[in-house]
Design a protein that fits this description.
disulfide bond, secreted, about 90 residues, mainly alpha, elongated, single chain, neuropeptide, ecdysis-triggering hormone activity
Length: about 90
């Protein structure tokens, strides 16, 4: 009887270990990190598409380079894009 319980416990332990190992090896996008510089440049391009001539995309990109992506523009947040708007 003790031998059967030991075998069952061993199998259960291996199954739990494999489940944990499988869970640990998953790689969701949020866990891999992100590059703020890349997001900054992409947001500049998106704002240029949305706002057209009113948005200075090159100035925004230069800002991304200067601040290394620390100031990410959000197209719907006036305060974050105000420096890149022109009066036409």
């Amino acid at each position: 009887m003790v031998g059967k319980l030991t075998n069952i416990y061993t199998l259960f332990s291996v199954a739990v270990f494999l489940c944990i190992l499988d869970h640990v090896n998953t790689n969701p996008a949020i866990a891999t990190g992100y590059d703020p510089f890349e997001i900054c440049i992409e947001n500049c391009a998106q704002c240029k598409k949305m706002l057209g001539a009113w948005f200075e995309g090159s100035l925004c990109a230069e800002s991304c380079i200067k601040f290394k992506g620390k100031l990410i523009p959000e197209c719907e947040d006036f305060a974050s894009i105000a420096p890149f708007l022109n009066k036409l």
